Amino acid sequence: MSDGPSLSDFMRHLQAILEDSEEIPNREDRETRQFQIESAIQEAILFGNRYKELLEHGIDPFHFVRSMSNDEHPQPVSKAESLSLGHDHCSGCGTRLERDLDFCASCGAKR
């Protein structure tokens, strides 16, 4: 693994922060912060358990699956940019459609 902190180190850190949160003077702020920290501790526990379970079954938890095609996917355009530019995007491949064409220039799908 790595030389960095372990999951148990992270959980101990969260528990220390949880204890320190008792000193937050505002009750609402204190409860909100404690909820956040307790949620993070629960997620760390779930992650640790799931990681161990996958390893026990011989599954690499960090195996990344690569796309079968070598096609580069265009960066998605934000909704605001799409509205301001007046462009639609192909439902098949996501490429920006040309206004004067009734099909996608990239994949040939009809509008």
- How much β-strand is present in the residues? under 5%
Quote the distance from N terminus to C terminus: 49 Å
Mean pLDDT: 80
Tally of alpha and pi helices: 3
Structural class: mainly alpha
Report the order of strands and helices.
HHH
Low-confidence stretches: none
Can you describe this structure?
By secondary structure, this protein is mostly helical. It has two domains: 7-56; 78-111. 46% of the residues lie in helices and 0% in strands. The protein contains three helices and no strands. It has helices at 7-20, 27-56, 79-85. Helix 1 (7-20) runs antiparallel to helix 2 (27-56). The longest helix has 30 residues, at 27-56.
In short:
It is built from 3 helices and no strands. The protein has 111 residues and is mainly α. The protein has 2 domains: 7-56; 78-111.
